């Protein structure tokens, strides 16, 4: 399966285009199935996009949002992806969106997996998955040096969510696996900056376990739409 690169002159133009694209796909899902699912990444890159998204007129009460990955920290922690989503997306017109966290303090990995397997919306094919990428080529919390890397990338894994130790950074993370993230109607990679562009270009050459994002570029399940700006 190929990937489609969409380049923009500025991050603002990218955010507006990505917002329009995601809104269209969520509206299509709402029209066809009465509900929609959106899986987003954490970090600083998606903040402006998520803020823009919060201002769009959708039936947000029928939209279910969760995370590609999450740090194992309380939601009050500054590094919590859930905290970022609540502060950027879950306000304005999107205040009624249904947010389903990955990390819940005290919950085992098995119970987390089962919670998503049993979810009335998030158990099925996702409508939109938006990946990010680190400067080391990691995506989600599938890090190059993590012991769990190969299991997370393996399309034959039975796991939908894994507890992973990135090794190079702390704390531990929960990540959705490649198999689970590829089960979507729309797969998007959102990256900015020349350094990440170089990493993406390297990963585009071939599958390389040292660059986990390459396994999302080189796969046969679904086309990858890459939204990029300097």
UniProtKB/TrEMBL annotation:
Signal peptide: none annotated. InterPro entries: 6-phosphogluconolactonase_DevB (IPR005900), 6PGL (IPR039104), Glc/Gal-6P_isomerase (IPR006148), NagB/RpiA_transferase-like (IPR037171). The gene is pgl. It catalyses: 6-phospho-D-glucono-1,5-lactone + H2O = 6-phospho-D-gluconate + H(+). Pathway: Carbohydrate degradation; pentose phosphate pathway; D-ribulose 5-phosphate from D-glucose 6-phosphate (oxidative stage): step 2/3. The keyword Hydrolase applies. This is 6-phosphogluconolactonase. It holds the Pfam family Glucosamine_iso. GO terms for molecular function: 6-phosphogluconolactonase activity. Its EC number is 3.1.1.31. It comes from Halioxenophilus aromaticivorans.
């Amino acid at each position: 399966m190929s990937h489609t690169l969409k380049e923009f002159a500025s991050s603002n133009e990218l955010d507006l285009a990505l917002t329009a694209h995601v809104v269209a796909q969520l509206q299509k899902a709402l029209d066809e199935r009465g509900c929609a699912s959106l899986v987003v990444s954490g970090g600083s890159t998606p903040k402006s996009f998520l803020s823009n998204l919060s201002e769009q007129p959708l039936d947000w009460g029928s939209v279910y949002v969760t995370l590609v990955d999450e740090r194992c920290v309380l939601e009050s922690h500054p590094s919590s992806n859930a905290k970022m989503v609540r502060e950027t997306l879950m306000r304005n017109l999107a205040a009624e969106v249904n947010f389903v966290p990955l990390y819940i303090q005290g919950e085992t990995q098995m119970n987390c997996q089962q919670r998503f397997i049993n979810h009335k919306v998030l158990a099925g094919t996702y409508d939109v998955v938006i990946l990010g990428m680190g400067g080391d080529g990691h995506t989600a919390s599938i890090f190059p040096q993590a012991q769990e890397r190969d299991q997370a990338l393996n399309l034959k894994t039975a796991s939908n969510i894994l507890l992973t130790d990135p090794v190079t950074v702390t704390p531990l993370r929960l990540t959705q696996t490649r198999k689970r993230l590829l089960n979507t109607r729309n797969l998007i990679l959102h990256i900015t900056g020349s350094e990440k562009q170089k990493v993406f270009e390297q990963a585009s050459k071939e599958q390389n376990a040292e660059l986990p994002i390459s396994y999302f570029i080189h796969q046969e399940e679904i086309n990858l739409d890459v939204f990029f700006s300097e």
